[in-house]
Specification:
376 residues, binds acetyl coenzyme *A
Length: 376
């Protein structure tokens, strides 16, 4: 029998074929449905890129408008879900509330329909989830912090409404534009842990709600989506410790203690700049004026980046600039990772659709290192 190869963390292992996206590391491009993600972020609004990710082609102007309207018209959530968020223990993290909220929605489908993973029904489900996850995340945050709900406004666009629900006020055009571009940068990224988790769950022919709930749990981890929260917390710690002049000593101390600097490194492009981070870092000086200590935070960002590159040859991943940008947009930190999930919902829907269309159950093997032959 051929000796099986073990790759810890499945590094470099091909888990699936896909038409959704690919990290072409050689040319430093994130390919999404044939397009360069950064060009999509630069040129288009998030909902158009979400349409592309889900349907596989760009919308024409009518489809673009209809899709945007569909998302805003479906954004509100059932009254029971608002009530449930009020009943949750106040210690619940927003990611856990979001995971629960996604599961909760499955109860609005009859058991027969829920078992139906046909393309059309999954498509409708995916679009419904894409529309609702921002309202779930923000309403959970609001209830957990004893703030009154801000229900979605169906008369404004996706990103404007999302920021409006978070802050309770109408955002300016520059903030809405930056927020929209961040959504696009997070929209889809080949086979990260959360997408893999969703596909593994979907491969049992379980429904999309379960697959997305699994992806939320995966994304919560600090080695994955949780890094955007960890990155801003680190930058704020440096700010409190003395500001930009402290950044080098702080980073060196952490590295000496063999601690990770969150927002740096990536399994696929470990020693190259994540193209999304490269694109988004230009927004930091643009938004720095939004907050009192924006310039200092921007300087800390640059210094930590310099030290990490010099000491470890590592570059920022997208969570590093995004953690800082969300802060400059006035977004509460517990919402950072939930917002990442909302942006990624389009990619998750596309992958679950693809998995159900050409399914084979994921069921790998192990190398057994335990004892044998024991008797009771
Ligand atoms: N800080 C310090 N050292 C690091 C970091 C980091 N952020 N990332 C990697 N390294 C070092 C490791 O210490 C290790 O060094 P060694 O060989 O001297 O021991 C080497 O780089 C390889 O690291 P691994 O953990 O083996 O690489 P892996 O591919 O498993 O990890 C990961 C990738 C988890 C992203 C890692 O870079 C990390 O922990 N980064 C910080 C968390 C983070 O930013 N996550 C977000 C990822 S992107 C996303 O989810 C959107």
């Amino acid at each position: 029998m051929e000796t099986p190869t073990y790759r810890p963390g499945l590094e470099g292992v091909i888990a699936s074929t896909t038409n959704v996206s690919y990290l072409d590391v050689d040319i430093e491009q994130i390919l999404v449905r044939g397009y360069d993600l950064i060009e999509l972020a630069r040129e288009l609004k998030y909902t158009d890129v979400a349409y592309l990710v889900i349907y596989g082609k760009l919308p024409n102007p009518t489809q673009s408008e209809e899709f945007s309207k569909k998302l805003t018209s479906k954004a509100d959530i059932p009254e029971e879900l608002y009530r449930m968020f009020e009943l949750m223990p106040k210690n619940t993290s927003v990611m856990d509330a979001l995971r629960t909220g996604v599961s909760f929605l499955s109860g609005y489908e009859s058991p027969n329909r829920l078992d139906n993973n046909s393309y059309d029904i999954n498509l409708e489900r995916g679009i419904n989830l894409l529309a609702k996850v921002p309202t779930i995340a923000v309403s959970a945050y609001r209830a957990l912090n004893d703030l009154s709900f801000v229900k979605p406004n169906p008369n404004i666009g996706y990103s404007e409404n999302f920021l409006y629900m978070i802050t309770g006020t109408s955002p300016d055009a520059e903030s809405t534009d930056a927020f929209d571009k961040i959504h696009t940068c997070y929209i889809e990224h080949e086979m990260p842990n959360s997408t893999f988790a969703a596909r593994v769950i979907a491969s049992t022919l379980s429904d999309m709600y379960g697959a997305v709930a699994g992806a939320v749990a995966s994304l919560k981890g600090p080695l994955h989506g949780g890094a955007n929260e960890a990155a801003i917390k680190m930058v704020l710690e440096i700010l409190t410790a003395g500001g930009p002049d402290e950044a080098e000593a702080y980073t060196m101390n952490k590295l000496e203690r063999k601690e990770r600097i969150m927002g740096f490194g990536h399994r696929v492009y470990m020693n190259k700049y994540d193209p999304r981070a490269l694109f988004l870092r230009d927004y930091i000086p643009r938004l720095a004026g939004n907050i009192a200590n924006g310039t200092q935070i921007s300087d800390i960002y640059n210094k930590v980046e310099f030290v990490m590159n010099r000491e470890k040859g590592l570059y920022p991943n997208t969570d590093y600039p995004i953690g800082i940008l969300y802060y400059m947009l006035g977004i509460p930190i517990p919402l950072y990772t939930p917002i990442f999930l909302c942006s990624r919902m389009a990619g998750l829907a596309a992958h679950i659709l693809e998995q159900h269309e050409d399914n084979r159950l994921f069921r790998p093997r192990v190398i057994y290192n335990g004892p044998r032959g024991l008797t009771v």
